[in-house]
Structure formats: structure tokens, C-alpha cells
Amino acid sequence: MAKTGYQPVPHDATFRKTLLAKPGVKEAFDALEEEYTALHTMLEARQTAGLTQAEVASRMGTTVSAVSRLEASLRSEKHSPSFATLRKYAQACGKKLVIQMV
């Protein structure tokens, strides 16, 4: 196999601390807190239920690519999933969708 020079960067506590110390990074990271919290909650629900994207898709009556896009959409401003879609995802994972303002 050819050498590519690829050297993965470990995403550990030390890396995070170094990254957040750079100018502007912490502010940008904090601005995305809601999206990342929502994404983490969705992925945790799916993993806790022991489901793959394919299984969630089957339970939602959609495709694997649609579930993949849904999970990725929370990291992007291009698409905002509807409450109905989020509710279906939650139900597919055996959960109930609850929206809170704090």
C-alpha cells in the first residue's frame, strides 16, 4: 500500500483544550452548542436503542440516506428538519420528542 502521509489527529481533551484556546474558535464552538446538543441527543437515542440507520429508516418508512441526511442536517444551516420528522425519528428509537426553552 502506498504511503499517503496521512496522520490522524486525536480528538482528546488535550486537543480540544488547545483548539478552544485559539482566537475565535471558542466563540464559534459555543455558537453551535444547540445544534451539537441536539445531534448528540439523537445519536445517543439511536445507539441506546441499539439501532442502525437502516433500522431507524425502516421504522420511519424512509431510506437510510434520508436518516443520514437528517442526522447530518443538524450540523448545517441548509436544512432544518420538521417537527414531524424529528418526532418520527424519536418514535423509531423508542423515545418521545420533547422541545424545551430554558
What does this structure look like?
This protein is mostly helical and 102 residues long. The protein contains six helices and no strands. Helix 4 crosses helix 5 (64-73) and helix 4 (53-60) packs across helix 6. The protein starts with 12 loop residues before the first helix and ends in a 10-residue tail after the last helix. The mean pLDDT is 90.
Gross morphology is: globular
Strand content: under 5%
What string, H for helix and E for strand, traces the elements in order?
Answer: HHHHHH
- Counting DSSP H or I runs of 4 or more residues, the number of helices is 6
Q: Could you give the count of β-strands?
A: 0
Can you give the helix content as a percent range?
A: 55-70%
Distance between the termini: 53 Å
Q: What is the residue-mean pLDDT, rounded to a whole number?
A: 90
Main beta sheet: none
| Parts with pLDDT < 50 across at least 5 consecutive residues | none
